[in-house]
Design brief:
It is built from seven helices and 38 strands. With 608 residues, the protein is mainly β. The protein has one domain: YVTN repeat-like/Quinoprotein amine dehydrogenase (Methylamine Dehydrogenase, Chain H).
């Protein structure tokens, strides 16, 4: 889904309050922390910067520039990028900002090692084409230039070789569906210097070649208003990962991944992600049963990832997805409903004998204490011949998954996230990011995994998954993609502070004490690039407006350096052992020579 950072958000979020212009942040006294007994890595919170703005998306996407030790944080509330000095990662501080222009919203930022930074700019009318601005992270006062891209540019990333910037143009419809722009991916050729690209450097990878083919493949095409709406208009690119000359793009609402060839700016494939069968993988379905009840239910979870990351293992690319979930809920169309509403005057019922249940069992299944309040889509599962629902689909997987680059799922974390947080936070299980009500999200995507990134430490690869609702970060070792293992969980949040219960006078103090609320964007900083020489994780938290720095420590010894190969070349370096042997031989030779000289001198003296 397009993030909270939208022009005019203040009018939508009536309860959101800007607290103060004085920056503040808090590392809470006792962060929630857990570590597996056999963990190979651990995580701790070391520093934070706060904007002092509550529930206005004042910290979202984060990027890091190693040369200047600066964090670039998207502040959608101000329509700017905050430039933070992180030379001391325990106390990052704001030193500048970059604006996208009047009446615009910045949604994302990425930076190249030489300092060329690229940011996406959403115009006041989200269905108009957006733009990308360029600036120097080392001297961020002036925008270097601007190019036009597609509608609602939601995410940008610079390719690992620094040659291209890729933009996911989400193309959401107007609330009244008066216009629905096409989703697309912009491929921008970047200059070698720290300078702006030109409009001629921008190409568009669109989906027109797939028209009429995607729904039959299992890609979700729905919610179209009017007969003239195309599949290209229905697709909504969200996030991009890059590997081996390919861009892998999440189409969140469409339950699919698009594969883009970067060199040709062409969409090569679109493949569906499938579902999690909750008959086999349990979850907590009710926010009104008064207890933690993680159990199976006859529904399917739609894998609708927001963020995506990519990594390689022995030449094979794997994609790592945060299965957040999202619904289309506009003025002109809404797919979202609760299970208990099926069979009401406006909705068809659940089919007789569904999941082997009797009529009374179906009635019990639809109660608030069971699955009645679980949010589902009405766009899928309807048996049109019988006019009843013979399958039920809920949003998101409440998990993260690992896929091959051609669409095979090799791992899913299943019910881990709810089980782990239930153990650690039994009084605040599945709570929201603005209050601490027990189980308030059990009926709606649970902890809601949204952000994801990967990093390599001591030869092992780790995934870091951020939770938008309950908050915090999960750490998994994904070195073996098919056998990923839980490592640790940390949440820099004080659950004794309920922001929604505070009056205006107490909001500033409360926000400073609450810690992090609403994890959004995550960036891994390897030790070789970090200010303190340690592996870091940067997290932007949209509700608390905080940018927080975590340190990730390896619990294993680094792999041994390989021994230098032996060679017969006279030019090669000698091993330490060889050098020592030669030195000893030389000493022995010298002793022998000296002995010989002494013997000659003695003989001469005797002759005299």
């Amino acid at each position: 889904m397009n993030r909270m950072s939208r022009a005019g958000l203040a009018a939508v979020c009536a309860t959101s309050l800007a607290l103060t212009s004085v920056a503040h942040a808090a590392v809470v006294d006792t962060p929630v922390h857990d570590r597996a007994t056999d963990a190979t890595a651990d995580i701790s919170v070391i520093g934070s910067y706060g904007t002092g703005v509550f529930n206005e998306s004042a910290a979202e996407i984060v990027a890091f520039h190693p040369a200047t030790k600066r964090i670039l944080t998207v502040n959608a509330n101000s329509g700017r990028i905050d430039i933070l000095d992180a030379a001391d990662p325990t106390a990052p501080k704001k030193i500048g900002e970059v604006s996208g222009g009047e009446n615009t919203t910045i949604n994302s930022v990425s930076v190249r090692p030489d300092g060329l930074a690229v940011a996406t700019v959403e115009p006041e009318n989200k269905t108009d084409n957006g733009s990308v601005i360029f600036f120097d992270a080392a001297n961020p006062g002036e925008v270097l230039g601007r190019v036009e891209v597609g509608a609602l540019p939601d995410m940008v990333t610079v390719t690992p070789d620094g040659a291209y910037a890729l933009v996911a143009n989400e193309g959401e419809p107007a609330e009244d569906y008066s216009f629905d722009p096409e989703g697309s991916v912009s491929v921008i050729k970047l200059p070698s210097a720290v300078a702006a690209a030109t409009q001629s450097d921008v190409r568009t990878a669109d989906f027109r070649a797939f028209e009429g083919t995607l729904a039959d493949k299992g890609v979700h095409i729905y919610g179209q208003v009017g007969d003239s709406t195309t599949e290209a208009q229905n697709l909504e690119p969200e996030y991009i990962a890059v590997s081996g000359g390919k861009a892998y793009v999440t189409l969140q609402e469409n339950n699919a991944i698009a594969v883009v060839d970067i060199a040709t700016a062409t969409v090569e494939d679109v493949w569906p992600l499938g579902y999690t069968d909750r008959r086999e993988v349990p979850m907590d379905t009710s926010d009104k049963d008064g207890t933690i009840d993680i159990r199976t239910a006859p529904v399917k979870g739609i894998l609708q990832p927001d963020s995506i990351a990519a990594y390689d293992v022995d030449g094979t690319t794997y994609l790592v997805l945060a299965n957040e979930g999202d619904a289309r809920d506009w003025e002109a169309y809404s797919e979202e409903e609760r299970i208990k509403k099926l069979g009401s005057k406006k909705l068809p019922p659940i089919c007789e004998g569904y999941a082997g249940m009797t009529a009374s069992e179906i009635e019990d299944f639809q109660s608030d204490e069971n699955a009645g309040r679980l949010k589902i889509t009405t766009a899928f599962g309807l048996n049109e011949d019988k006019n009843c629902y013979d399958d039920l689909y809920t949003y998101g997987g409440r998990s993260f998954s690992i896929f091959t680059a051609d669409g095979k799922r090799v791992f899913d974390s299943g019910a881990d996230f709810e089980k782990i947080t239930a153990k650690l936070l039994p009084e605040h299980f599945n709570t929201n990011h603005t209050e601490n009500e027990f189980e308030s999200r059990s009926d709606d995507k649970g902890p809601e995994p949204e952000g994801i990134t990967v990093g390599e430490i001591n030869g092992r690869t780790y995934a870091f998954i951020g939770f938008e609702r309950i908050g915090g970060v999960m750490v998994y070792d994904i070195t073996d993609p098919a056998n990923a293992t839980y490592q640790a969980y940390i949440n820099n949040r004080d659950f004794s502070v309920n922001m929604e219960a505070l009056d205006d006078d107490a909001l500033t103090t409360g926000l400073n004490q609450a810690g992090d609320l609403g994890a959004e964007g995550l960036t891994f900083v390897p030790a070789k690039d970090s200010p303190n020489g340690e592996n870091l994780l940067l997290v932007g938290n949209e509700v608390s407006g905080t940018t927080t720095v975590f340190q990730v420590d390896s619990l294993i010894e680094p792999p041994a350096e390989p021994a230098a190969p032996e060679t017969d070349s006279a030019q090669s370096s000698l091993s330490k052992g060889g050098v020592i042997a030669i030195a000893l031989a030389a000493v022995a030779a010298c002793i022998g020579i000296l002995g010989g000289i002494g013997h000659i001198l003695n003989s001469l003296l005797e002759r005299r």
